[in-house]
Structures are given as C-alpha cells and as structure tokens.
Amino acid sequence: MKKLPSKPSLSLVFFFLSLKIWFIEVLVAQNTATIPVNVGVVLDLEFSGGNIGLTCINMALSDFYATHSDYKTRLVLTTRNSGNDVVGAAVAGALQLPLALI
C-alpha cells in the first residue's frame, strides 16, 4: 500500500505566516530614521498671544506626527522673542538664516 502525501499541517502554515509577518515588522522597524527640518519661529513671547500661539503650534505638530507617524521629516522649532519690536523680529529672523542668504 502506498502512503498518500500528507497535507501540510495547520501549525506549519501558521508558523510560516508568523515568520513572514515578523520579517515584515523587522524591515519596517529598521526604516525609522528621521530627517530634522529646522524652522525659525519669531513671536512676541512677552505677550500672552505669543505664548498661546507657540503652544498651538507645538500641539499642532504633536497631533500631526501622531496621525502621520510614517513621515520621515520632523520640524524642529527654534523660537526667538521679538520683544514687541518689529526691528527686533526682523533681526531675530535674520539670525536664523545662513550667512549666504543674508
């Protein structure tokens, strides 16, 4: 009597499926490097509106990256106080630029 070839057991199929999912997870986890993008923010931090604006910007960034965690770029905020002075705001903004652009 000949033996019939046996069907692969369910546990073997489950093992290979789990192994494939694990390899995909490892490959996705290795690609988590972020690219920082420096952004200058000039606000009048002595005025409550400036502090509220900065808080809103930080909350918006936090919410955005919580929703879009697959984005590789990350905004890095550099804040400067304008001191309720238009010229001070312009100088604070100019200090953020590389010398080649000034």
TrEMBL record:
Keywords: Signal. InterPro entries: Ionotropic_Glu_rcpt (IPR015683). The keyword Signal applies. The keyword Signal applies. Residues 1-29 form the signal peptide. This is Uncharacterized protein.
